[in-house]
Amino acid sequence: MAAGYRLGKLEAQLLKSKDKVALTKFAIDSGGLRLKANGDWSIDAKGLNHTAINFDVTAKNSSDLMGRFSVTGGIQDATAQTKGNISFDSTPWAMDLASLDGMVETKIENGYISGVGGAGRFLGLFSLDSILRKMQLDFTGVFEDGLAFDEISGSASITNGVVVTDNIQMNALAGDMFIKGIANLVKNQVNVDVRFVPDLTSGIPVFTAFAVTPQTALYVLAVTTVLSPVVDAFTQVRYQVTGTIDDPVVREVSRSTGEVTLPEQATQRLREQQRSKSE
Question: Whole-model pTM?
């Protein structure tokens, strides 16, 4: 246990030379959590420090991982892997953001986001928490109980403390989300573009929330005998996120509308859900 955190098995090996300390092995294994890292800390002829670190973190259950750090909420019951490398001109214990370079990538599978406020450090840089909070307000009844997902993945490059991504994607039960943008760690600023494409066939809450006129859509679903009815729906919602990383502003940019043809199997499932709600 370190600083109140349950670490499990820990292994480390340091090698020291004249102007460098190399961390050739650092590993934590607690069964459900595995962390591997290596790196070095060097001092050049001018007395300037430089640190480089490679890391790979794997968690079998994100709930257990956050529980070890006394964090509640956030991403639950998911498997997760985050890996990357960073370097900066300072000592290992005093990161210099202005010289921070590197890359990081993450993949989280088969879990759900319980409320907001715990999307993780990497995803949090691009305001996933704030985006979900805004969508809770805009589309009531869809996200209040959390957001189940199959996969969240993405990568980012870091140059002089500026984190850039164009491929964060979440495949969720309610729909797919795509995030690209910049997080400037030095200036504590974020500028992010978000697209959400709802899956109207996932259930009645999403169907009614993203229908242009929910009552009409429900009427069509209940009355029509067509196996694959057509409804007018919001097919995509775009948001822009700007401001500080700690307290960003999420603004809706646009809503695209179109006619959506419901597949026969999805129509039957939605009708069954509708009947069960009315009973």
Answer: 0.87
Asked whether residue 20 is domain-assigned, the answer is: yes
Partners of 231 in beta bridges: 260
**Which two three-digit tokens encode residue 86?**
């960073």
DSSP SS3 for 218: helix
Structure confidence by residue, pLDDT tens digits, 248-277: 999 999 999 998 888 888 778 887 877 776
| pLDDT tens readout for residues 40-88 | 999 998 889 999 999 999 988 876 766 655 555 567 788 989 999 999 9
d(CA 136, CA 129): 11
Residue 2 maps to a domain: no
User: Which domain, by its residues, includes 234?
Assistant: 10-278
CB 74 within 8 A of CB 100: no
- From 182, 215, 201, select the one nearest 268 (Cα to Cα): 201
